[in-house]
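User: Okay, second chain of the day. Same drill as before: sequence in, structure tokens out.
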Amino acid sequence: MTPSPTAAGVFALPLASTADIAAGTSWLRFRPPPDTACEPGQFFMLSTVAPSPVAYLGRPFSIGDVRDGEWFFMLRALGRGTAWLRTLELGTMMRLVGPLGVGFARDESKVHRMIAGGIGLAPFLFLARRLRTEQPEAAIELYYGERDARSHIELTADEKELFDTVERFTDDGSLGIAGSVVDGLENRWAEPEVAWYGCGPQPMLRAAAAKLEEHDVDSAQFAFEERMACGFGVCQACIVPNRYPPPRYHLLCTEGPVLEIGKVAW
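Assistant: Same drill. Structure tokens below.
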């Protein structure tokens, strides 16, 4: 199923709650107006309503989950702006622009397999929640890698129930399987009737795309992480090379952030 486009809006909402879920990583939660729709894989640009001396531009955040009438956004403090966002007090008025971009198509499949690297876990809880509702008989699998055990996000009981399989990987071997997610899936790339999804650092996505294409799988969907200044195509900053130009590049904020791997010049 290909999601229908969802009209974007500008929302001024108080920061409802925060929760630390791993080292340097937190959920930010907001309570949107009723019946405000969004799709897994779409994103919002987040900033404060009041001018900030630290973060002049909004920051893009995937919709991490939608439940109990709240929007969840996964924040990892990776720079000055995201570190500052984590220090905001509850009730701070925030400016949320979205939902923006193109989300994941959710076609029928026996197995839905998600590859997450680091903060690339962000869109997959919402995606799994939708798939669990729409395709209750399908198997939903999560393969999730981090640098070390401290960085791994612990899933709640409700979140664990979204997945039939959860396998964890760490670069240093301090949790789960030692090594990368791509290495850990070495014998799984050619399995039939699998819908593939990925999100994480581009080196991980590039390696996963190479493995899939080696086994003639070209319909996998990857959500790309790129710096953005505007979120709707004006700044032309969030680009990835197009395999079949013209144009030479895909604009991730309008054509993505979710793209079929066959469309990207890796």
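The chain has two domains: 9-100, 111-225.

User: Thanks, on to the next one.
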